[in-house]
């Protein structure tokens, strides 16, 4: 996709703020309903709970959970969106599916998984892997900054404290790398094939 189709930063920021406001609105509804919306999270190992893969990333288990996810959701989603709405949508969908399926399969039964952290981990690894495959200076620079600021999150793909879905984190991270490979490997191949220009 041509870079000229990328949204302007102001529009991208407004879009992400709108989505973030939606997450907060859903949590308000969840609190008012006595946490009934939590039932729309992923029900691990239950076949009829698989459709919730698409609703779980937008729900949270309380205000602390939502607050901890809000800033990285806004920042990383904004950085991905700067490459274009289509790439943002495709990469986000891949991440949500891979993260959700991984959490559904690896999490013990009778567990409900919800939260945007799987998507956040996917955006993080997408930005890092994109810089490797695209080899565009600006995207490499973004990858370096993201690594410096949020690189510590990567450890979240390992089992840690109870109640934290490392499974969703791991799936999101894998989904982000997969999305970057699918969306940017062609650009990388074109650069390699073109090679340096030599005059004889």
Describe the structure.
With 200 residues, the protein is an all-alpha fold. It is 63% helix and 2% strand. The protein contains six helices and two strands. A two-stranded antiparallel ribbon has the order 1-2. Helix 3 crosses helix 4 (117-134), helix 3 packs across helix 6 (166-194) and helix 4 (117-134) runs parallel beside helix 6. It starts with 8 loop residues before the first helix and ends in a 6-residue tail after the last helix.
Could you name the key traits of this structure?
200 residues; mainly alpha; Rhomboid-like fold; two-stranded antiparallel sheet; 2 strands; 63% helix; 2% strand; globular
Topology:
Elements (H helix, E strand, L loop, with lengths): L8 H24 L9 E2 L19 H19 L3 H22 L5 E2 L3 H18 L2 H14 L15 H29 L6
Antiparallel strand pairs: 1-2
